[in-house]
Every structure is written in C-alpha cells, then in structure tokens.
Amino acid sequence: LWESKNWFETIGIALAVFLSTFISTLSEYGSEAAFSKLQEDAAKIQVNVKRKEGIIQIPLSELVVGDLVLLQAGERLPADGILVQGHVLVDQSALNGESAEMTKFPVNSQKSEWDLLEKHQLFCGSVVTSGNGLLVVQNVGDQTFYGQLAGELQEDSLDSPLKLRLSHLANTLSKVGYVAAFLVAFSDLFHRLVINYHYQWDLILQELSSLPNVFSHLFHSGMLAISVIVVAVPEGLPMMITVVLSSNIFRMLKDKVMVRKLIGIETAGSINILFSDKTGTLTKGLLSVSHLIDGEGKAHEELSSFRHHHPFVQYIGLSCLYNTSSVLSGQEAIGGNATDRALLDFFSKQKGSSLNQSWHIVKFQPFDSVKKYSFVQVKNQNQEYHLIKGASEILFPHCNEYVSSSGKILPFTKKYQVEEAYQELTRKGFRVLLLAVSPKAIETYPQSASIRGNLIFLALAVIHDALRPEIPLAVRTVKEAGIQSIMITGDNKDTAMSIARLSGILDSSTDRVLTSSELAKMTDQQVKDILPHLKVVARALPNDKSRLVRIAQDIGLVVGMTGDGINDAPALKKADVGFSMGSGTEVAKEASDIVILDNNFASIVKA
Q: Are 245 and 266 in contact (CB under 8 A)?
C-alpha cells in the first residue's frame, strides 16, 4: 500500500510538471500566433491608390513600386516615394527624431528651390499631418528606409509593471523559502540528534560516530528542506500571470478590443473618469444627408426636381465633389472624414449627378478644427467659384444673400426662419452644415475676418447619425461602476445635449454642459470645482482634451480617453489609458494603449 501511494505521488508530480510545461508552451505559442495574426492584419491595411481602373482601395501588402497613392491628413505613409501632386505637411519624428514638421512639395514644381530631393521625398513611417497629395511609390516593405531601420533595430518587449511586481514577490518568497528550509532542516537534525537523546552528549557523540546513521539523518533533513523549497518557491507564478493576461487579451480581442500594451489591462479596471467621443463611438458613425434646406426654408430630399444644369444644383455639386477630402471609388466615397463622405455620397447618388463642364481645383484648404470650416476655389474655362462649408453658427452671421431655388442671388429675407429651423434640428440631435458661396477669394484663410459679411447662403445640409442601440445600457453600466462619463464632441451645444440625453450621459438637473469657448474662459481651479458635474463639452478643440486630462489627473483621478485623430494623440498619450478607434488614424493608435476595433463605447465598457 505504501509503495502504491509513492507511485501515486510520482504520477501526480509528473503530471504537474507536464501541465506546467504544456501551459507555458501553449501560452508562448498562442502569443506568437496572435502576433502573427496581428502582422497579417497590419498587412491588410487599406491604401487608396490610383490605377488604370480609377481610384481603388487595396491592402498594404499589394502595394507595388510605381503605384500612385492618394495621401490625406492623418495617414501613415505606406512606402517610400516622391510627391508628384499637392502639398503636404509630414511628421518625420519616427525616422529622424525631429519634432518639427516638414513641408513637402511636388517634384514637378517650377521653382528651383523645390528641386531638392528632401523637399519632395516622402518616407514610409512618416505621418501626414495636413494637406493632400499624390505619391509615386519607389520602395516598399523591407526596402524602405523605415524597413531597413526596423531590420537593424530589434527591440525586446518589456514586462508589464504587474509582472515585474509579481516577479519581485516571487523572488522575496523564494528567499523566505530558503531561510525556512534551512530552519526546518536544522530543527529536524536538532530533534533527531539532541532532543531524542535527551541532551545526553555521550549518546549524541556515539550516534555521530556512525556514518550510516549520520547520512540517514542528513538525508531526511535534506529531503524536508527540499520539500519546503519546492512548496515555498512560486516558480509558476510569473508564468501563470502571463497565461492569465494572454487569455484576457484573447478574450478582449473577441470583444473587438485589441490591447497594445499590457499596462492597459491593468489600468482599465481602475478608471474613475472616461472622456468619450460622440461620432462613431456613441453613435453608429454612418452619417447620411437626410435633406437640404434652401434659403427659402424649403426641404429637398432629392435634387431631381431641379434641371441638371440648374445653378443651385451646380453649386451643391461643386461643394460636395470638390470641397472635400474624400474621393469617389466607383459609387462609394472613401477617405476624408465621415461628414465629407456623407455629402459626397448624397450628391453622387442623385440622378444625373455628374457636372456638365470640366472643373479643376485652384486652391483647397481642408477642414480646420479651430476655424470650423473648409474652403475650395474651382474654375473651368468660363467660370470661377469660391465655396465654403462648415459649422452653421460660425458661418450663418456672415450670410446676407442666398441662392434661390430659381438660381438667382437675392437678399436673405428669410434668414431668421432658416436659423430657427437650424436650431430646432440641432436640438433634435441632427448635425447641420452650412454650404455657402463667396463672391471673392478668401485670401487670408483660415482667418475668420476674411469671410465677414462676404457669404452667399446656399443650403443647410442636415446630417443624421443614429445612436447605437446598446449605448444607454453601456452608459448605465459605467455609472453603476462608479465611472463618470464625459462626452467631448465637435458638434454644437444643442446637438451634443440631444445625444447626451438619449445615451443617458446627461440625466440630472445638476449636470453641466460647456462649450470650448466657455471652458477656455475658466481657470483650472474652476474646472476642478465643476468637473464632478461636467457631462458634455461641445465644439471642443483638440487642446481641450489634453487640458481636461491634466486637470483630472491633478485631483487624483485615473483617466480614460478616447480619440481617433492626429490632434487626439497628445491626450491619448497623457491619459492613464488611451482608447483609440479602429477606424482612426495610425498616429492615434500609436499613442493609445488599447484599440477599440469596432469604435463602440460598449466595447470600451467591456475593456
């Protein structure tokens, strides 16, 4: 029976060793497989290229030398190449450590000072911070300058703070175990040689003179010491933590949450305050133009009631097709922001949406998050127009005339009624953009003084973005967990408040709603005083996010921040946990700890 018991113990020990080795191997294999999958997913990043069949989206892995790549603000350059069209501002800090952004000019420019290679050469890994352009690919993959650097510099991954602390704990317990083993061995020998012989030194010396007996006693004490060490030293603790964290990463990936840094898992559960975007995070992010409102207050769901060559339709078409950072690929709008794509989709799906004459862009300034509008100058052989698109409350005061449904430019007599309609729409949660025509060039763009009183009202584009159905429950779950949610959005105050009420973020009479301008007038101490009651920041600027993160951390809160744009990167980096969106820019993802692949607030709650 005793022998069979020893066999059971032997089998048990062997099984434990096997399980430990198997789990460790499985964990490492799983991590390697996950990394390989992420590398494959990275190769599937879509790139907008111009080929014979037109503008198409292809995976990054299919990009070849000679391709023409469309560049837009917020994108990471997929390859080395030469700029042949447009002007872009790029951040090359990933390559040269220089924080200053570089302006790149097209190689076919006539100015001699632009003929230097550095003025038109673009490198993989750089980020386009503003502007648009066309890149001819010269090197891809490992042949790029960035790829060669990556090959030379292999960086070992660092352990998470939790794993480091647990490793330290394991070392401490090991030292305690060794001390305990020595004491147990000494106590066993003392008991066998001294206490058993009742402190009779002659008997003790007689026992010590027998080598077999001494060896037996030492062997027994040694076995006890080894048993204590085996039990006390937690060799498997760091491994088990790795297994747990790895399993968490895999589980979170199934929930559309990709963890870039293990510290993100450790900190996410300790968040006290969460700053969240609205569009695409609380809402579906599928913007669509429901209708247009003209200067006479009439709503137009379609433009089919107008003749194809009608001046009103031509203005609308030029605004949608050219005052945008998006482009058409077949019948689908790609690139740019969601608002640009919504307007482009709206016009392209109208009957006879193509314009009769050949137009080209003379000057284009993309949407500016500070001034809240974009501008384009277009012309053909006979005509030239200056079109502006942006926030209604910014542009509305400067409109004194309007383009009538008959195509004439008339005094804006119904301005008050149209403005009332706009305010009612924003209260219902619609996003409203104003489309206008300027009779002269806006030379000092983006200085708002240059548009003062110079605009001819064209139409209000009413854009709808439905709230995600799961958001109210997710917001309630966050509140029950003791986390304060604050919505930060570029929308106006009424639209922001409407969405905040529908989602449950705004549900009390003591809740505060601020605009960016109101926030700017407050001192840090005043913001700290109202922060527990703050729920919405409307018309927010990028630096508002960074400021709110800093203030919240100053009062000891653990801060979570969501973002998707280049301007969000500083706030994502500064926050305790940065959540970037899967559809966001590469620079935002680089700055974040966790990527929310489906852009959903509910997935942030799961994290």
A: no
More confidently predicted of 83 and 287 = 83
Cα–Cα distance list, 421 to 295, 426, 474, 538, 596 (Å): 11, 9, 32, 20, 36
Amino acid in position 511: D
Identify the pLDDT of residue 14: 77
Show the tokens assigned to 176. 């305690």
Cβ neighbours, 10 Å, residue 267: 20
Could you report the per-residue pLDDT of 91-141, keeping only the tens digit for each? 776 565 454 567 788 876 544 443 445 678 888 878 887 788 899 999 988
Backbone angles phi, psi at 501, to 5 degrees: -70, -45
d(CA 370, CA 465): 23
**Which one, of 458, 451, 400, 452, lies nearest residue 434 by Cα?**
458
Which DSSP symbol is given to 231?
H
- Model pLDDT, residue 155: 44
What one-letter code names the amino acid at 441?
A
Structure-derived torsion over alpha carbons of residues 286, 292, 293, 298, reported in degrees to the nearest 10: -130
* Per-residue DSSP letter, 193: I
**pLDDT, tens only, 154-207:** 444 445 556 667 778 878 888 888 899 999 999 998 988 888 888 888 888 888
Alpha carbons 45 and 63: distance in angstroms, whole number: 11
Per mean pLDDT, which of 3-17, 29-43, 396-410 is the most reliable? 396-410
State the pLDDT at residue 235.
62
Contacts 24+ apart (CB under 8 A), 310-314: 310/407, 311/403, 311/407, 312/403, 312/404, 312/405, 312/407, 312/458, 314/355
Location of structure tokens 């949660």:
429
DSSP codes, 494-548: HHHHHHHHHHTS--STT-EEEEHHHHHTS-HHHHHHHGGGEEEEES--HHHHHHH
The b-or-e profile of 121-134 (16+ CB within 10 A means b, else e) is: bbbbbbbbbbbbbb
Measure the CA–CA gap between 100 and 107, rounded to whole angstroms: 22
Of 571, 597, 601, the closest CA to residue 584 belongs to 597
Token couple for 318: 């030029």
Q: Compute the Cα dihedral for 52, 56, 62, 68 and give only its sign.
A: positive
Q: What is the DSSP secondary-structure string of 386-444?
A: EEEEEEHHHHGGGEEEEE-TTS-EEE-TTHHHHHHHHHHHHHTT-EEEEEEEESS--TT
Of 71-75, 336-340, 427-431, 467-471, least confident by mean pLDDT is: 336-340
- Identify whether the C-beta of residue 380 lies closer than 8 Å to the C-beta of residue 359: yes
CB burial of 187-210 (b: ≥16 within 10 Å; e: otherwise) equals ebbeebbeeeeeeeeeeeeebeee
d(CA 68, CA 43): 18
Q: Is 196 left (phi over 0), alpha (psi -120 to 50) or beta?
A: alpha
- Are 451 and 371 in contact by the 8 Å Cβ rule? The answer is no
Instruction: Give the range among 18-27, 267-276, 311-320 with minimum mean pLDDT.
Output: 18-27
